[in-house]
Input
Amino acid sequence: MADVQPFAAWRYDLGHVGCLSDVVAPPYDVIDADLQQRLYARSPCNVVRLELTRPEPGDEGDDARYHRADRWLRDWKHNGILRQDPSPALYVCHQTFTVDGVTHTRRGVLARVRLEPFGQGRIFPHEQTLAGPKADRLKLYHATLTQLSPVFGLYPDDGNAVQERLDAAVRRQPPLVADDHLGVRSSLWPLADPTIIRDVVAAFHAKPIYIADGHHRYETACRLRDDLAARGELAGDQDPAHFVLMALVSMSDPGLQVFPTHRLVAGLPDLTAPQLADLLADHFELTTLGTGPDAAAECWEHVETAPDQSVLGFGTQADGQWQTARLRRPDALDALAPDHSPAWRGLGVARLHVLVLDHLLGPRLGAQLQCQYVHRLVEVTTALAAKRVPLGVLVPPASVAQVATIAGQHEKMPPKSTYFYPKLLTGLVLYGLR
Output
């Protein structure tokens, strides 16, 4: 069973910092150098100083950044900038955002969830992880003994009964509000009612949890727990290090949005649309739609509305043409990826990488292909117009159901298969391990 529990969060004292929007930040993996600088300038107490501390003159080695984050954290606690809630709570969190003129609200709850090895319990990953980000997070966790950014977890709840219970409990309370750099508004309600907490915790006992985002943080939390256990520093099975900070969102929540991750492909010659069609013709039916933004939008509409992720969209920089490519046979990947399940082989992103890039284009052109990843159609059309890459590919996003199916089979999806928008904010709540 999933062991979901309340916890006493460390939170900013608004009497010290003023506006909560000034001290929160996105997670480390989407903060570039420019945004890091802007967050530093926004407030001397912005959580970016903990989440992604910048190097400073005089640093002796890279580890100095992590020790500086710990000093900031200790100082903020000592001076009352961060205060720990007096009793364990669940933290209801709504994120309101606008996409293509439509406003959505994604609802969830922040809690601590007991760590368990993947494949041995009720928590399932769906992405592969990289050693570099995990090493970085582990140094930060060891230095601060604090989890700063929540892992994003999904759980099945067809009627959204768990979230409705939470929302009803806080409906008459004013929320704490923070707006991020993209205009996403996060609203937070601490909920310490023991009766409601007991009911919500019990509701999670029979539910699996699928990690949507934060795989590196989850695996790092497991590694930290193991390190502390090896040193004899865990105080029983309720030690905070046995748990990970997690935001839990129902898979049926109407505000749950999965963005596509399109590919900008470099390393190719300047292909025209007819040349590309010849290379793909054995496996795909190609349809040319024209040039310009209207053709690109029409291409994306075909890709997005295909019921079985059988359509990809291609824009060729050499002639500005857009065309769709519809897979002729759904079993085209069976011989190329026999170790994967039919669900995995049915992903549009799997069909792109395994069949198109690795089998049809790379070997036939003698090319070493490299992909950049973007999420909006305008980013693809802009890159092609600026002649930054010879090929843009529009890819359908994996659905929440596909994530659950593939993760539940203990498979990992291809890299960059999902992008759950928006990112969860860092700094609304911190989970201290000591």
